[in-house]
Amino acid sequence: DPSVPPSGVSCSGCGAELQCRDAVAPGFLPAEKYRSLTEGPAGLAGLRGAVCQRCWLLAHHGQALQLRLPPEQHRLVVSAALRRPPRHGRGPLLLYILDLLELPDPVLPQLPALLGPDVPAAGVLVVGNKVDLLPADSPGHLGRLRRQLAAACTQAGLRGAPLVDVRLVSAKTGFGVERLISRLQSSWKCAGDVYLLGATNSGKSTLFNSLLQSDYCKSRAPDIVNRATVSPWPGTTLNLLKFPIINPTCDRIFRRQERLKEEATKTEDQLSSEERKYLNQFKKQGYLVGEVGRTFQRQKSSAVIDFDPDMLSYSVDEDPKISARKHEEREEFTHNEVKDARWCFDTPGIVKENCVLNLLTEKEVKLVLPIHAIVPRTFILKPGMVLFLAALGRVDYLQGEKPAWFSVVASNLLPVHISTLSNADDLYKKYAGQEFLKVPMGGEERMKEFPQLVPQDITLKGIGTTEAVADIKLSSAGWVAVTAHAEEKLLLRAYTPEGTTLVVREPPLLPYISAIRGARIAGTAAYRTKKPPSLVENLKTMERR
């Protein structure tokens, strides 16, 4: 209904202004639904807590609506927010979230330019997310990953603000989140606002939701602030969402530490049935699991039962009359709760350029983005053999004296196929768009519009049969770790869709990944897969790193 002006009320899932004027613009609600929420006694206030059609479909059906939203609009929202005048006399802390699987992060080098000289940021804390998806390829692998993350920050040149720290977490399973909160409360305390920044699909909104249900948030806020919409579809958050940060007084920090100490003395067998159910669920999804608890719970008053005698005074010949449902009053913050509050903001994801995800449909994105612990798949190839990762990437082993090991780290739903150089082109032409290669999907018509694969020659020198020399990162589809005999020279040719970025990552992210394998499958180039066990943080059973 174009005649209805915008509401001025934000969607509680993505932050866009709710409206019923334009179905392809952010914040759209069908006119009938919009009117049903606003025609009551509350008026526009009836929209508070509502979500737009896009967030509803993402949350309940995993379905994404295509919006008319230029990628630069996300960047403008973030840039404008960062250039707000400092509150409380101090600039904000920037919590930059990146997907560890995406290292080197394509947006991190843009951060100094995004900040600029006029952004009064007090510091940057970089958080490497999705660590739960990566298998432990050697003892101490978390320390090595953290060092690699720190090196990536240095290489990106974070000069817009001092680098406070780097942390590893899983926003989904909760691993590392309690330690992140402790770090924030001990160093940043409640000095100023905090902004969550990062590329699309880095997990910002998932971390925002975890922090909202934790000791980092004011105790009453989870009852008032809605959780952000989380989806594999890039660019879910369209505007700023926020919650008030709790002031970490000495008493609160002491009580929190006591809770964490008590939890650390438990074994898995001592957990409640509900806690064990939670852990077992996430153990199936990730290698690293940690529960995010709350020390400061708001005491909820017992429910008041409305007694309506008229409801009981009907004869056996009459149907009972259902009294009109009273309008539910939505809780709001009091003035005193927010007048001096420091806020944690979730911001729109910065769109990654030259990314294969930008070429994919909604169904294809769900197959490509890993949401469960990645099980590495290792193959031993001779010169003249080819490895396909779906129809999104290809690695040819052109020249070398000896066989080499190629370990695929990608979504478990993406197929890997081995061919020979002489058959590779025909295989791609015949099966691209079909179930055999799976992604892209849609047959010949889909492949007519999909960019062709373009090659890049790569020369590597092996460093030993137990350690990979490099990762060949096939845009955001995954990577292939290459392990070869010491001093063995390899000539490879890797392919990704035209317009996407292929990266040779040295040193590799998981250098000992080829060791995570079973026995060789007779008559094939493949090894049986092996999935390492999951570890639970902050329990006696977990190995300390």
UniProtKB/TrEMBL annotation:
SUPFAM superfamilies membership: P-loop containing nucleoside triphosphate hydrolases
UniProt domain NOA1/YqeH-like C-terminal: residue ranges: 406-506
Coiled-coil region list: 250-277
Keyword vocabulary terms for this entry: Coiled coil
Domain G: 194-244
MF annotations from Gene Ontology: GTP binding
Protein name as catalogued: NOA1 protein
Organism: Rostratula benghalensis
Gene it is expressed from: Noa1
